Amino acid sequence: MAKTCMEYREQRRKYPTQVRNRCMICGRPRGYMRRFGVCRICFRDLALKGKIPGVTKSSW
């Protein structure tokens, strides 16, 4: 219910600059990665599981 409420609230914004990007999985507004559409936490989980093609763990 909370996620549905957040989506509805974002659609009602008066100006497009007020719309906040949110993670598609958990709805988190901070740490959002625009290229993948998820937050940093969900991105890491998906990358470790191999769900995002082309992403590898870096080491140097």
TrEMBL record:
<dbReference type="GO" id="GO:0003735">
    <property type="term" value="F:structural constituent of ribosome"/>
</dbReference>
<keyword id="KW-0862">Zinc</keyword>
<keyword id="KW-0687">Ribonucleoprotein</keyword>
<keyword id="KW-0694">RNA-binding</keyword>
<keyword id="KW-0479">Metal-binding</keyword>
<dbReference type="InterPro" id="IPR018271">
    <property type="entry name" value="Ribosomal_uS14_CS"/>
</dbReference>
<protein>
    <recommendedName>
        <fullName>Small ribosomal subunit protein uS14</fullName>
    </recommendedName>
</protein>
<dbReference type="InterPro" id="IPR001209">
    <property type="entry name" value="Ribosomal_uS14"/>
</dbReference>
<dbReference type="GO" id="GO:0015935">
    <property type="term" value="C:small ribosomal subunit"/>
</dbReference>
<dbReference type="GO" id="GO:0046872">
    <property type="term" value="F:metal ion binding"/>
</dbReference>
<dbReference type="Pfam" id="PF00253">
    <property type="entry name" value="Ribosomal_S14"/>
</dbReference>
<keyword id="KW-0689">Ribosomal protein</keyword>
<dbReference type="GO" id="GO:0006412">
    <property type="term" value="P:translation"/>
</dbReference>
<dbReference type="GO" id="GO:0019843">
    <property type="term" value="F:rRNA binding"/>
</dbReference>
<dbReference type="InterPro" id="IPR023053">
    <property type="entry name" value="Ribosomal_uS14_bact"/>
</dbReference>
<keyword id="KW-0699">rRNA-binding</keyword>
<dbReference type="GO" id="GO:0005737">
    <property type="term" value="C:cytoplasm"/>
</dbReference>
<dbReference type="InterPro" id="IPR043140">
    <property type="entry name" value="Ribosomal_uS14_sf"/>
</dbReference>
